[in-house]
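Researcher: Please generate the 3D structure of the following complex. Treat every line as part of one assembly.
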Amino acid sequence: MAFLIHAIDVLAISWRIVKPQRVWAGRTRWVKLSPMEVLREAFKLLSAGPICNTCLGRRYAKLGKGLSNAERGQAIRVLWAMETGGEASEPDRCWVCEGALLRAEDHAQKALEAVKDYEFETFLFGVRLTPYQEAVEDFLRKRFPSPWAEPLQRDLNRAFGRAFERLLASEGMKATVDYYHPHVRFTVDLWKGSVEVYIAPAYFYGRYRKLVRGIPQTHWPCRECRGKGCPRCNYTGKMYPTSVEELILPVFLEACDGEGGHLHGAGREDVDARMLGRGRPFVVEVERPRRRRVDLKAVAGRINAGARGKVEVLDLRPASPELVRKVKELKARKRYLARVSLAAPVTQKQLSEALAGLRGEIHQRTPIRVRHRRADLVRVRRVHEASGRLLSPTEAEIEVLCDGGLYVKELISGDEGGTHPSLSELLGIEARVRELDVLEVLDDL
Ligand SMILES: [Zn+2]
Ligand SMILES: [Zn+2]
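Model: Done. Output below.
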């Protein structure tokens, strides 16, 4: 019997003759409603007080395609009027939304006023209900349960968004709704009657090459004075006169007319290492940009002219916020070139054999030099290729291809036994990196 009823239900749904749905009624039991019963429920809601078509229709928002909630509400009201001889026209006030929907134009106007100095192509509205509206929503859920209902917020967001689009069109502007990464996000506070604005940052991808040593990736405050200025830093407040970030970011800030920003690098090389080849990926984030469509060729030109001989950027393009995470988590293989000094003379044969022994798994404890700021643990990373030639009996040039996250200076020195195997260990003499270049970051960004 139960099976038969279920089968009829399924058929009925697929034939769209009747639409039984489970409805939460009270605390303990589920009941099924047919469309006629739904209508009876709707009539009760209509009789409960003056309600606008949209608020009425919203209780049945998932019934019928190609209809607005206002149209659903209107249809129900007409049937109700025909049955009861009541008034079929919409009342001019509503106890559910308190007329918030009617004030959409005002909110749109405020929203546009707040972003008139900012370039945007996408937007999104959000809303904070008044305590009264919250209570009414709760009351409706309990007293007029409907599995087809939508929350009031959704109708409000939609209405505000449409009003905003109309307003933009009247000003000869255009923007579309984006649920994920809108350029501007409005929050209408119905209690305060205010519109708050969040301007999303603008993101740009690129790669940088660092052609000289002694430049950190980001601004590094003086260790002594923490940026205030002291004799040690020559009253600059900085450990180094400039950084990759300081050479790149200001040009973006100016181009976007932004209020601040960051450079997110895909890892970082040591201050004294150069970054060559196709460079290292980065994402620049510009906060509260007034302009988003910028001429990136001109930006690259200005950066490269300003940082001539020190830093170069290439491959600039607009980016998404997801790319920041991707760039920060990037674990790309890297190719290094190291100039190494040896504590005692070795032959080319000894060097080549030692380098062959470096290939494979390397167990590396957090280097002594960074242990004060990074967790002390042992990582396993691979050396894929290692080759080298002697420049003199105590000096060698070594090329290494290895996993991201391997510390190359310690791979050579052994770091007092913290890295195993190491070149120093395999040669049986002390070896030390004197100069290091990143030849290539092998990513697919
Ligand atoms: Zn209403
Ligand atoms: Zn200082």
